[in-house]
Amino acid sequence: MERNPDRPAEAHCAFQAFEEHAALLHAVARSMLGDGGEAARVVEETRERWLAGQGDYSAGFPNGLIRLVTVLALTRLRVAQANGEEHIGPWLPEPLRGEPDLKLAESVSAALSTVLGMLDQDERTVFLLHHGFGLAYADIAAVTGHTEEEVRGIDARAKARVRCEVRPYGWAGGGH
Known about the structure:
The chain is mainly α and 176 residues long.
């Protein structure tokens, strides 16, 4: 096997890109999985794969990294679902400390967790990646395997649920 003389430079660049975006990757994984520990494991796997050259460097930084962490988080969600788990984490916010507006921050975090819990897996993924992390529909399509048109439809459905215009399947509702 022939060695690529540019590989050390590429590896250094990949390492720097990962380190620079590690907090963002953890936020994406945490948002998708609802569990900080599970998110840390997914980010570690992302790091290992990225540094082994299994990431899409052509997508640029941080999109290639976000794609990889999203695929790994989706895989973890699918495995959990196949094992009968509804979701991995409790969809409750982790405690915030040292926050000047702690009550407001906790209220917003709890409300967001409730909203995310109402969305199905595809809706949550598209909603978080597009509205939370600013990925374009084309990039989300590449990550999820859906067409760009399907991603737009999933996003529209997710936004409708967030606005409480569409209730999730099986939601019985009840009084106010």
